[in-house]
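Researcher: Can you fold this with methylmalonyl-coenzyme A in place?
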Amino acid sequence: MLLQALTGTDRTAVTVAGAELSRAELLRRAASTAAELRAAGIARVAVHAVPTPETVIALVACLLAGTTAVPVPPDSGASELAHVLGDAAPAGWLGLAPPDPGGLPVVGVAAGTAAVPAEPGPETPALILYTSGTTGPPKGVVLSRAALTAGLDALTDAWHWTAEDTLVHGLPLYHVHGLVLGLFGPLRIGSPLVHTGRPTPEAYASAGGSLYFGVPTVWSRIVAEPDLARRLSAARLLVSGSAPLPTQVFGRLAELTGAPPMERYGMSETMITISTRVDGERRPGWVGLPLPGVRTRLRDDAGREVPADGETIGSLEVAGPMIFDGYLNRPDATEQTLGADGFVRTGDAAVIDPGGFHRIVGRESTDLIKTGGFRVGAGEIETCLREHPGVADVAVVGVPDDDLGQRIVAFVVGAGDPDALIGHVADRLAGHKRPREIRFVPDLPRNALGKVQKHRLTS
Ligand code: MCA
Ligand code: AMP
Protein backbone atom coordinates (compact mmCIF):
# COMPACT_ATOMS: atom_id res chain seq x y z
CA MET A 1 0.00 0.00 0.00
CA LEU A 2 1.37 3.39 -0.99
CA LEU A 3 0.46 5.05 2.31
CA GLN A 4 1.40 1.94 4.25
CA ALA A 5 1.93 3.73 7.58
CA LEU A 6 -1.71 4.80 7.78
CA THR A 7 -2.61 1.47 9.29
CA GLY A 8 -0.93 0.08 12.40
CA THR A 9 -0.47 1.76 15.74
CA ASP A 10 -2.61 4.79 16.36
CA ARG A 11 -0.18 7.68 16.54
CA THR A 12 -0.75 11.22 15.36
CA ALA A 13 -0.45 11.21 11.60
CA VAL A 14 -0.70 14.90 10.77
CA THR A 15 -0.99 18.16 12.65
CA VAL A 16 -2.22 20.86 10.31
CA ALA A 17 -3.82 24.24 10.99
CA GLY A 18 -3.41 23.39 14.68
CA ALA A 19 -5.66 20.31 14.37
CA GLU A 20 -4.36 16.80 15.03
CA LEU A 21 -5.47 13.92 12.83
CA SER A 22 -4.72 10.49 14.26
CA ARG A 23 -3.89 7.73 11.81
CA ALA A 24 -7.17 5.99 12.67
CA GLU A 25 -9.26 9.10 12.04
CA LEU A 26 -7.43 10.00 8.84
CA LEU A 27 -7.77 6.43 7.56
CA ARG A 28 -11.45 6.22 8.53
CA ARG A 29 -12.43 9.50 6.90
CA ALA A 30 -10.25 9.04 3.83
CA ALA A 31 -11.48 5.47 3.32
CA SER A 32 -15.14 6.51 3.53
CA THR A 33 -14.48 9.39 1.11
CA ALA A 34 -12.63 6.97 -1.17
CA ALA A 35 -15.58 4.56 -1.09
CA GLU A 36 -17.84 7.38 -2.27
CA LEU A 37 -15.41 8.32 -5.06
CA ARG A 38 -15.26 4.69 -6.18
CA ALA A 39 -19.03 4.25 -6.01
CA ALA A 40 -19.53 7.36 -8.13
CA GLY A 41 -16.80 6.28 -10.56
CA ILE A 42 -14.95 9.57 -10.26
CA ALA A 43 -11.61 9.48 -12.06
CA ARG A 44 -10.28 12.98 -11.37
CA VAL A 45 -10.98 15.75 -8.85
CA ALA A 46 -9.58 19.16 -8.01
CA VAL A 47 -8.38 19.81 -4.46
CA HIS A 48 -8.20 23.34 -3.07
CA ALA A 49 -4.74 22.90 -1.57
CA VAL A 50 -5.06 25.07 1.52
CA PRO A 51 -3.31 23.39 4.47
CA THR A 52 -6.25 22.07 6.48
CA PRO A 53 -7.45 18.64 7.70
CA GLU A 54 -10.08 18.56 4.90
CA THR A 55 -7.38 18.95 2.25
CA VAL A 56 -5.26 16.23 3.81
CA ILE A 57 -8.23 13.85 3.99
CA ALA A 58 -9.21 14.66 0.38
CA LEU A 59 -5.70 14.02 -0.96
CA VAL A 60 -5.37 10.77 0.97
CA ALA A 61 -8.85 9.67 -0.15
CA CYS A 62 -7.82 10.16 -3.77
CA LEU A 63 -4.79 7.92 -3.29
CA LEU A 64 -6.90 5.23 -1.61
CA ALA A 65 -9.55 5.37 -4.33
CA GLY A 66 -7.26 5.63 -7.34
CA THR A 67 -8.86 8.97 -8.22
CA THR A 68 -6.34 11.40 -9.72
CA ALA A 69 -5.97 14.52 -7.59
CA VAL A 70 -5.32 17.92 -9.15
CA PRO A 71 -4.09 20.07 -6.26
CA VAL A 72 -4.85 23.72 -7.03
CA PRO A 73 -2.91 26.59 -5.43
CA PRO A 74 -5.36 28.32 -3.07
CA ASP A 75 -4.32 31.76 -4.32
CA SER A 76 -4.79 30.92 -8.01
CA GLY A 77 -6.05 33.91 -9.93
CA ALA A 78 -8.98 33.79 -12.33
CA SER A 79 -7.10 33.00 -15.57
CA GLU A 80 -4.90 30.39 -13.99
CA LEU A 81 -7.84 28.67 -12.34
CA ALA A 82 -9.80 28.66 -15.60
CA HIS A 83 -6.81 27.16 -17.40
CA VAL A 84 -6.26 24.38 -14.85
CA LEU A 85 -9.94 23.45 -14.64
CA GLY A 86 -10.30 23.55 -18.43
CA ASP A 87 -7.18 21.48 -19.05
CA ALA A 88 -7.59 18.87 -16.31
CA ALA A 89 -11.40 18.71 -16.53
CA PRO A 90 -11.94 17.42 -12.97
CA ALA A 91 -15.40 16.13 -12.02
CA GLY A 92 -15.55 18.61 -9.13
CA TRP A 93 -13.82 19.82 -6.00
CA LEU A 94 -13.15 17.37 -3.20
CA GLY A 95 -12.89 18.81 0.32
CA LEU A 96 -12.90 22.61 0.29
CA ALA A 97 -13.26 24.90 -2.73
CA PRO A 98 -12.15 28.40 -3.68
CA PRO A 99 -14.66 31.27 -3.49
CA ASP A 100 -15.39 30.81 -7.20
CA PRO A 101 -15.46 27.05 -7.86
CA GLY A 102 -15.65 27.63 -11.62
CA GLY A 103 -19.10 26.06 -11.98
CA LEU A 104 -17.96 22.69 -10.61
CA PRO A 105 -19.73 20.79 -7.83
CA VAL A 106 -18.08 20.76 -4.40
CA VAL A 107 -18.14 17.50 -2.47
CA GLY A 108 -17.06 17.56 1.16
CA VAL A 109 -15.01 14.77 2.71
CA ALA A 110 -17.06 11.98 4.31
CA ALA A 111 -17.37 11.31 8.02
CA GLY A 112 -18.53 7.68 8.09
CA THR A 113 -16.66 4.40 8.08
CA ALA A 114 -15.83 2.14 5.14
CA ALA A 115 -13.25 -0.47 4.30
CA VAL A 116 -10.14 0.69 2.45
CA PRO A 117 -10.77 -0.07 -1.25
CA ALA A 118 -8.50 -2.53 -3.03
CA GLU A 119 -5.16 -0.94 -3.99
CA PRO A 120 -5.25 0.67 -7.46
CA GLY A 121 -2.65 -0.50 -9.98
CA PRO A 122 0.83 1.09 -9.81
CA GLU A 123 0.41 2.72 -13.22
CA THR A 124 -2.69 4.69 -12.08
CA PRO A 125 -2.07 8.44 -12.32
CA ALA A 126 -2.00 9.71 -8.73
CA LEU A 127 -1.44 13.41 -9.26
CA ILE A 128 -1.52 16.12 -11.89
CA LEU A 129 0.70 18.98 -10.72
CA TYR A 130 0.69 22.20 -12.72
CA THR A 131 4.07 23.73 -13.43
CA SER A 132 5.39 26.55 -15.58
CA GLY A 133 7.31 26.34 -18.81
CA THR A 134 9.19 29.23 -20.40
CA THR A 135 6.14 30.25 -22.41
CA GLY A 136 2.42 29.66 -22.27
CA PRO A 137 0.18 28.58 -19.42
CA PRO A 138 1.29 25.92 -16.91
CA LYS A 139 1.42 22.27 -17.98
CA GLY A 140 -0.02 19.37 -15.99
CA VAL A 141 2.67 16.94 -14.88
CA VAL A 142 1.18 13.44 -14.55
CA LEU A 143 2.76 11.36 -11.78
CA SER A 144 1.83 7.70 -11.30
CA ARG A 145 1.54 5.82 -8.02
CA ALA A 146 4.61 3.81 -9.01
CA ALA A 147 6.63 7.02 -9.41
CA LEU A 148 5.50 8.29 -6.01
CA THR A 149 6.40 5.02 -4.33
CA ALA A 150 9.83 4.83 -5.98
CA GLY A 151 10.59 8.48 -5.24
CA LEU A 152 9.74 8.18 -1.56
CA ASP A 153 11.58 4.90 -1.05
CA ALA A 154 14.73 6.33 -2.61
CA LEU A 155 14.66 9.24 -0.14
CA THR A 156 14.02 6.95 2.81
CA ASP A 157 17.22 5.21 1.90
CA ALA A 158 19.33 8.36 1.44
CA TRP A 159 18.08 10.19 4.51
CA HIS A 160 17.53 7.17 6.82
CA TRP A 161 14.04 8.58 7.24
CA THR A 162 12.09 6.41 9.70
CA ALA A 163 8.90 6.33 11.75
CA GLU A 164 10.97 7.68 14.66
CA ASP A 165 11.24 11.05 12.87
CA THR A 166 8.80 13.92 13.24
CA LEU A 167 8.72 15.93 10.02
CA VAL A 168 8.12 19.68 10.17
CA HIS A 169 7.46 22.01 7.25
CA GLY A 170 5.08 24.74 6.15
CA LEU A 171 5.34 24.36 2.37
CA PRO A 172 2.46 24.47 -0.10
CA LEU A 173 0.50 21.25 -0.57
CA TYR A 174 0.40 21.51 -4.37
CA HIS A 175 4.00 20.74 -5.35
CA VAL A 176 6.24 17.70 -5.10
CA HIS A 177 8.18 19.25 -2.22
CA GLY A 178 5.36 20.02 0.22
CA LEU A 179 2.86 17.41 -0.99
CA VAL A 180 4.66 14.28 -2.15
CA LEU A 181 7.69 14.48 0.12
CA GLY A 182 6.01 16.54 2.80
CA LEU A 183 2.63 14.78 3.20
CA PHE A 184 2.69 11.43 1.41
CA GLY A 185 6.25 10.79 2.67
CA PRO A 186 5.28 10.77 6.36
CA LEU A 187 2.16 8.71 5.62
CA ARG A 188 4.25 6.07 3.84
CA ILE A 189 7.09 6.08 6.34
CA GLY A 190 5.13 6.56 9.56
CA SER A 191 6.71 9.73 10.88
CA PRO A 192 4.18 12.26 12.22
CA LEU A 193 3.96 15.51 10.22
CA VAL A 194 3.64 18.94 11.76
CA HIS A 195 2.55 21.35 9.03
CA THR A 196 3.15 24.88 10.25
CA GLY A 197 0.81 26.65 7.82
CA ARG A 198 3.51 29.07 6.73
CA PRO A 199 7.22 28.26 6.83
CA THR A 200 8.20 31.01 9.26
CA PRO A 201 11.35 30.89 11.43
CA GLU A 202 9.24 31.14 14.60
CA ALA A 203 6.98 28.23 13.59
CA TYR A 204 9.96 26.03 12.65
CA ALA A 205 11.81 26.82 15.91
CA SER A 206 8.73 26.04 18.01
CA ALA A 207 7.75 22.78 16.33
CA GLY A 208 10.37 20.50 17.93
CA GLY A 209 10.76 18.08 15.00
CA SER A 210 13.66 15.86 13.99
CA LEU A 211 13.45 16.38 10.22
CA TYR A 212 12.73 19.74 8.56
CA PHE A 213 12.07 20.62 4.92
CA GLY A 214 12.54 24.10 3.48
CA VAL A 215 13.30 25.99 0.32
CA PRO A 216 16.40 28.24 0.44
CA THR A 217 14.27 31.33 1.19
CA VAL A 218 13.03 29.60 4.35
CA TRP A 219 16.58 28.75 5.47
CA SER A 220 17.88 32.21 4.71
CA ARG A 221 15.06 33.75 6.80
CA ILE A 222 15.90 31.31 9.61
CA VAL A 223 19.62 32.14 9.73
CA ALA A 224 18.68 35.83 9.86
CA GLU A 225 17.22 35.04 13.31
CA PRO A 226 20.11 33.28 15.06
CA ASP A 227 18.25 32.60 18.32
CA LEU A 228 15.50 30.79 16.44
CA ALA A 229 18.01 28.97 14.22
CA ARG A 230 19.89 27.65 17.27
CA ARG A 231 16.68 26.03 18.47
CA LEU A 232 16.88 23.72 15.44
CA SER A 233 20.11 22.15 16.68
CA ALA A 234 18.20 19.27 18.26
CA ALA A 235 16.90 18.21 14.84
CA ARG A 236 18.48 15.24 13.05
CA LEU A 237 18.30 16.70 9.53
CA LEU A 238 17.54 20.03 7.92
CA VAL A 239 16.87 19.48 4.22
CA SER A 240 16.99 22.17 1.55
CA GLY A 241 15.74 21.94 -1.99
CA SER A 242 13.70 23.42 -4.87
CA ALA A 243 16.30 26.10 -5.64
CA PRO A 244 20.03 26.72 -5.10
CA LEU A 245 20.99 27.10 -1.43
CA PRO A 246 23.48 30.01 -1.22
CA THR A 247 26.77 28.75 0.22
CA GLN A 248 26.76 31.45 2.91
CA VAL A 249 23.32 30.25 4.11
CA PHE A 250 24.66 26.68 4.13
CA GLY A 251 27.63 27.79 6.24
CA ARG A 252 25.60 29.89 8.65
CA LEU A 253 23.06 27.10 9.17
CA ALA A 254 25.91 24.69 9.97
CA GLU A 255 27.39 27.20 12.45
CA LEU A 256 24.10 27.96 14.21
CA THR A 257 22.67 24.43 14.39
CA GLY A 258 25.89 22.42 14.68
CA ALA A 259 25.36 20.41 11.48
CA PRO A 260 25.41 21.26 7.78
CA PRO A 261 22.08 21.01 5.95
CA MET A 262 21.29 18.27 3.44
CA GLU A 263 20.72 19.37 -0.15
CA ARG A 264 18.76 17.55 -2.77
CA TYR A 265 17.71 18.29 -6.33
CA GLY A 266 14.53 17.56 -8.20
CA MET A 267 11.78 18.88 -10.38
CA SER A 268 8.05 18.37 -10.73
CA GLU A 269 8.63 16.08 -13.71
CA THR A 270 11.16 13.84 -11.97
CA MET A 271 10.58 14.25 -8.24
CA ILE A 272 13.87 14.05 -6.32
CA THR A 273 16.63 12.34 -8.28
CA ILE A 274 19.86 13.59 -6.67
CA SER A 275 20.62 14.04 -3.00
CA THR A 276 23.31 14.10 -0.40
CA ARG A 277 23.17 11.05 1.86
CA VAL A 278 22.90 11.28 5.61
CA ASP A 279 26.00 9.08 5.90
CA GLY A 280 27.88 10.90 3.13
CA GLU A 281 29.52 14.19 2.31
CA ARG A 282 27.58 17.48 2.48
CA ARG A 283 29.33 20.01 0.26
CA PRO A 284 28.09 23.62 -0.02
CA GLY A 285 26.90 24.40 -3.54
CA TRP A 286 26.58 20.70 -4.50
CA VAL A 287 23.42 18.58 -4.42
CA GLY A 288 24.93 15.10 -4.06
CA LEU A 289 24.67 11.73 -5.73
CA PRO A 290 21.97 10.08 -7.87
CA LEU A 291 19.41 8.30 -5.67
CA PRO A 292 19.10 4.50 -5.97
CA GLY A 293 17.74 3.58 -9.41
CA VAL A 294 18.58 6.99 -10.93
CA ARG A 295 20.91 7.52 -13.88
CA THR A 296 22.21 10.95 -14.85
CA ARG A 297 24.26 12.29 -17.73
CA LEU A 298 25.47 15.60 -19.13
CA ARG A 299 25.16 16.55 -22.78
CA ASP A 300 26.70 19.36 -24.79
CA ASP A 301 24.82 21.46 -27.36
CA ALA A 302 25.53 18.86 -30.04
CA GLY A 303 24.08 16.07 -27.87
CA ARG A 304 27.48 14.53 -27.06
CA GLU A 305 28.14 13.23 -23.56
CA VAL A 306 30.24 15.61 -21.43
CA PRO A 307 32.92 14.20 -19.08
CA ALA A 308 32.24 13.95 -15.36
CA ASP A 309 35.38 15.88 -14.42
CA GLY A 310 33.85 18.30 -11.92
CA GLU A 311 34.41 21.24 -14.27
CA THR A 312 32.84 20.75 -17.69
CA ILE A 313 29.32 22.10 -17.75
CA GLY A 314 26.64 20.17 -19.60
CA SER A 315 22.91 19.93 -19.89
CA LEU A 316 21.64 17.59 -17.17
CA GLU A 317 19.45 14.61 -18.09
CA VAL A 318 18.02 12.19 -15.55
CA ALA A 319 16.25 8.82 -15.73
CA GLY A 320 14.75 6.67 -13.00
CA PRO A 321 11.61 5.03 -11.67
CA MET A 322 10.27 8.26 -10.14
CA ILE A 323 9.85 10.28 -13.34
CA PHE A 324 6.55 11.50 -14.75
CA ASP A 325 4.35 9.88 -17.39
CA GLY A 326 4.14 13.06 -19.49
CA TYR A 327 2.31 16.39 -19.63
CA LEU A 328 -1.47 16.18 -19.70
CA ASN A 329 -2.88 16.93 -23.18
CA ARG A 330 0.58 18.04 -24.39
CA PRO A 331 2.28 15.25 -26.38
CA ASP A 332 4.40 17.90 -28.13
CA ALA A 333 5.84 19.20 -24.85
CA THR A 334 6.24 15.66 -23.51
CA GLU A 335 8.29 14.69 -26.53
CA GLN A 336 10.55 17.71 -26.09
CA THR A 337 11.27 16.90 -22.45
CA LEU A 338 11.11 13.11 -22.14
CA GLY A 339 13.33 11.13 -24.49
CA ALA A 340 12.42 7.71 -25.89
CA ASP A 341 15.24 6.27 -23.76
CA GLY A 342 13.52 7.46 -20.57
CA PHE A 343 15.86 10.41 -19.87
CA VAL A 344 14.27 13.74 -18.91
CA ARG A 345 15.93 16.89 -20.24
CA THR A 346 15.89 18.96 -17.08
CA GLY A 347 16.89 22.30 -18.61
CA ASP A 348 19.49 22.69 -15.85
CA ALA A 349 23.18 23.18 -16.50
CA ALA A 350 25.31 21.05 -14.20
CA VAL A 351 28.70 19.52 -13.54
CA ILE A 352 29.45 16.06 -12.13
CA ASP A 353 32.71 15.34 -10.34
CA PRO A 354 34.65 12.08 -10.73
CA GLY A 355 33.06 10.80 -7.48
CA GLY A 356 29.57 11.32 -8.96
CA PHE A 357 28.74 14.45 -6.95
CA HIS A 358 26.50 16.90 -8.83
CA ARG A 359 26.47 20.70 -8.84
CA ILE A 360 23.63 22.64 -10.44
CA VAL A 361 25.18 25.62 -12.18
CA GLY A 362 21.97 27.31 -13.30
CA ARG A 363 18.97 27.16 -15.61
CA GLU A 364 19.67 27.07 -19.32
CA SER A 365 16.77 29.40 -20.08
CA THR A 366 16.58 32.78 -18.40
CA ASP A 367 12.84 32.57 -19.05
CA LEU A 368 12.35 30.08 -16.22
CA ILE A 369 12.55 32.00 -12.97
CA LYS A 370 12.87 30.44 -9.50
CA THR A 371 11.45 32.77 -6.89
CA GLY A 372 11.07 31.60 -3.30
CA GLY A 373 11.39 28.04 -4.66
CA PHE A 374 8.48 28.52 -7.09
CA ARG A 375 9.11 27.95 -10.80
CA VAL A 376 7.61 30.78 -12.87
CA GLY A 377 7.69 31.18 -16.65
CA ALA A 378 8.49 34.67 -17.88
CA GLY A 379 6.22 34.14 -20.90
CA GLU A 380 3.11 33.56 -18.78
CA ILE A 381 3.65 36.83 -16.90
CA GLU A 382 4.39 38.73 -20.11
CA THR A 383 1.20 37.43 -21.75
CA CYS A 384 -0.80 38.45 -18.69
CA LEU A 385 0.72 41.95 -18.55
CA ARG A 386 0.18 42.50 -22.29
CA GLU A 387 -3.56 42.18 -21.64
CA HIS A 388 -3.37 45.37 -19.55
CA PRO A 389 -4.25 48.51 -21.55
CA GLY A 390 -1.28 50.42 -20.06
CA VAL A 391 1.26 47.92 -21.40
CA ALA A 392 2.55 48.39 -24.96
CA ASP A 393 5.41 45.92 -24.58
CA VAL A 394 6.98 43.99 -21.74
CA ALA A 395 9.86 41.72 -20.82
CA VAL A 396 9.95 39.80 -17.56
CA VAL A 397 13.19 38.69 -15.95
CA GLY A 398 14.37 37.15 -12.70
CA VAL A 399 16.95 39.32 -10.96
CA PRO A 400 19.12 38.06 -8.09
CA ASP A 401 17.47 38.59 -4.72
CA ASP A 402 18.94 37.81 -1.28
CA ASP A 403 15.60 36.63 0.07
CA LEU A 404 13.80 34.99 -2.84
CA GLY A 405 16.81 33.81 -4.85
CA GLN A 406 15.32 35.56 -7.85
CA ARG A 407 12.82 38.42 -7.84
CA ILE A 408 10.38 38.86 -10.72
CA VAL A 409 10.91 42.21 -12.42
CA ALA A 410 8.80 43.42 -15.36
CA PHE A 411 10.32 45.93 -17.77
CA VAL A 412 7.30 47.70 -19.21
CA VAL A 413 6.98 49.99 -22.19
CA GLY A 414 3.94 51.98 -21.23
CA ALA A 415 2.59 53.96 -18.34
CA GLY A 416 0.47 53.59 -15.25
CA ASP A 417 0.50 52.75 -11.59
CA PRO A 418 3.06 50.00 -10.88
CA ASP A 419 0.90 48.57 -8.08
CA ALA A 420 -2.04 48.27 -10.46
CA LEU A 421 0.11 46.25 -12.88
CA ILE A 422 1.32 44.02 -10.05
CA GLY A 423 -2.28 43.57 -8.90
CA HIS A 424 -3.34 42.78 -12.47
CA VAL A 425 -1.02 39.75 -12.44
CA ALA A 426 -1.88 38.71 -8.87
CA ASP A 427 -5.61 38.72 -9.70
CA ARG A 428 -5.20 36.52 -12.74
CA LEU A 429 -2.35 34.19 -11.77
CA ALA A 430 -1.00 33.03 -8.38
CA GLY A 431 0.40 35.47 -5.80
CA HIS A 432 3.98 34.26 -6.19
CA LYS A 433 3.83 35.02 -9.92
CA ARG A 434 3.27 38.72 -9.35
CA PRO A 435 6.21 40.97 -10.29
CA ARG A 436 7.79 42.42 -7.18
CA GLU A 437 8.92 45.41 -9.21
CA ILE A 438 7.86 47.27 -12.37
CA ARG A 439 10.46 49.28 -14.24
CA PHE A 440 9.17 51.55 -17.01
CA VAL A 441 11.49 51.78 -20.03
CA PRO A 442 11.16 53.73 -23.30
CA ASP A 443 11.73 50.56 -25.35
CA LEU A 444 13.11 47.04 -25.09
CA PRO A 445 16.53 46.13 -26.52
CA ARG A 446 16.09 43.76 -29.47
CA ASN A 447 18.48 41.94 -31.80
CA ALA A 448 18.32 42.10 -35.60
CA LEU A 449 15.66 39.38 -35.62
CA GLY A 450 13.48 41.39 -33.25
CA LYS A 451 14.05 39.10 -30.23
CA VAL A 452 14.25 40.90 -26.88
CA GLN A 453 17.78 40.77 -25.44
CA LYS A 454 16.89 40.31 -21.82
CA HIS A 455 20.48 40.22 -20.58
CA ARG A 456 20.84 43.85 -21.67
CA LEU A 457 17.99 44.89 -19.39
CA THR A 458 19.78 43.85 -16.22
CA SER A 459 23.44 44.41 -17.13
C1 MCA B 1 0.83 37.69 -1.09
N1 MCA B 1 1.24 38.91 -0.68
C2 MCA B 1 0.80 39.82 -1.55
C3 MCA B 1 0.08 39.13 -2.54
N2 MCA B 1 0.12 37.82 -2.23
N3 MCA B 1 0.96 41.16 -1.60
C4 MCA B 1 0.40 41.84 -2.64
N4 MCA B 1 -0.31 41.24 -3.61
C5 MCA B 1 -0.51 39.90 -3.58
N5 MCA B 1 -1.24 39.32 -4.50
C6 MCA B 1 2.00 39.20 0.51
C7 MCA B 1 1.61 38.32 1.66
O1 MCA B 1 0.38 38.78 2.21
C8 MCA B 1 2.77 38.52 2.61
O2 MCA B 1 2.62 39.62 3.42
C9 MCA B 1 3.92 38.79 1.69
O3 MCA B 1 3.38 38.96 0.38
C10 MCA B 1 4.92 37.69 1.70
O4 MCA B 1 4.25 36.49 1.82
P1 MCA B 1 5.00 35.11 2.26
O5 MCA B 1 3.99 34.10 2.58
O6 MCA B 1 6.09 35.34 3.22
O7 MCA B 1 5.55 34.69 0.93
P2 MCA B 1 6.75 35.14 0.13
O8 MCA B 1 7.70 35.99 0.89
O9 MCA B 1 6.28 35.70 -1.14
O10 MCA B 1 7.32 33.69 -0.12
C11 MCA B 1 8.26 33.03 0.64
C12 MCA B 1 7.92 31.57 0.83
C13 MCA B 1 7.24 31.03 -0.44
C14 MCA B 1 6.95 31.43 2.00
C15 MCA B 1 9.18 30.83 1.14
O11 MCA B 1 8.00 31.44 -1.54
C16 MCA B 1 7.02 29.56 -0.45
O12 MCA B 1 6.13 29.01 0.20
N6 MCA B 1 7.83 28.83 -1.25
C17 MCA B 1 7.75 27.41 -1.38
C18 MCA B 1 7.79 27.01 -2.82
C19 MCA B 1 7.79 25.54 -3.00
O13 MCA B 1 7.30 24.77 -2.17
N7 MCA B 1 8.30 25.09 -4.14
C20 MCA B 1 8.39 23.71 -4.44
C21 MCA B 1 8.37 23.55 -5.94
P3 MCA B 1 2.48 39.47 4.99
O14 MCA B 1 3.71 38.77 5.45
O15 MCA B 1 2.42 40.88 5.44
O16 MCA B 1 1.22 38.68 5.18
S1 MCA B 1 9.79 22.75 -6.48
C22 MCA B 1 9.50 21.10 -6.29
O17 MCA B 1 8.48 20.65 -5.81
C23 MCA B 1 10.71 20.26 -6.69
C24 MCA B 1 10.38 18.85 -6.93
C25 MCA B 1 11.79 20.38 -5.64
O18 MCA B 1 12.96 20.27 -5.98
O19 MCA B 1 11.43 20.55 -4.48
P1 AMP C 1 9.96 22.64 -10.07
O1 AMP C 1 9.53 21.88 -11.22
O2 AMP C 1 9.15 23.75 -9.64
O3 AMP C 1 10.10 21.64 -9.04
O4 AMP C 1 11.40 23.23 -10.33
C1 AMP C 1 12.47 22.40 -10.70
C2 AMP C 1 13.72 23.21 -10.81
O5 AMP C 1 14.11 23.71 -9.52
C3 AMP C 1 14.90 22.43 -11.27
O6 AMP C 1 14.87 22.23 -12.66
C4 AMP C 1 16.04 23.31 -10.80
O7 AMP C 1 16.25 24.38 -11.67
C5 AMP C 1 15.52 23.85 -9.48
N1 AMP C 1 16.05 23.11 -8.32
C6 AMP C 1 15.42 22.19 -7.57
N2 AMP C 1 16.22 21.78 -6.56
C7 AMP C 1 17.38 22.46 -6.67
C8 AMP C 1 18.60 22.50 -5.92
N3 AMP C 1 18.78 21.76 -4.84
N4 AMP C 1 19.57 23.32 -6.36
C9 AMP C 1 19.40 24.08 -7.45
N5 AMP C 1 18.28 24.11 -8.19
C10 AMP C 1 17.27 23.31 -7.80
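Model: Folded with methylmalonyl-coenzyme A in place. The mean pLDDT is 97.
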